[in-house]
Amino acid sequence: MQDRLKKLLVVAMVYHSKWSNAIALFAQMNWGVQVLALEPPFFLGEQKGNKITFEGVILKQYQGQLKLTINTNTDYLCLVFDNKPGDNLILLRTQDVKDIVSRPFEVVEIVPHIRLKDKVEISHERDSL
Description:
The strands form 2 sheets. The chain has a 6-stranded mixed β-sheet with strand order 2-3-4-6-7-8. It has 3 helices and 8 strands. The protein is α/β, with parallel strands linked by helices. The chain has helices spanning 2-6, 18-31, 94-101, and strands at residues 9-11, 34-39, 42-47, 50-59, 65-67, 76-81, 89-93, 114-118. Strand 2 and strand 3 (42-47) form a beta hairpin. It has one domain (11-118): Trna Endonuclease, Chain: A, domain 1.
């Protein structure tokens, strides 16, 4: 029974607006990205004179199969795994993972493509990062 549950498809729950805005603020404070525009779940940044687009997605699960719908025209995909202990934020170059995340996938498939990882804490009591 447990093996059967592991194989069930986990559909990613995406939190919009304040969550992607919080990821943009995190990028500005921790990665040196100057945020130029917010359009949840996307944001436009600039770093070292280069404009960069990001899509921020908060996921409820990190185990089992995930299913995402992403915009493949962004430069980076930032995934935050809500209930994962330790490093739960990963940054991926969208072009590196677009074929993987366009179908149901497991996190282990995108691990080789991680450009950066970090930890963010999400408090559900106040619904904030």
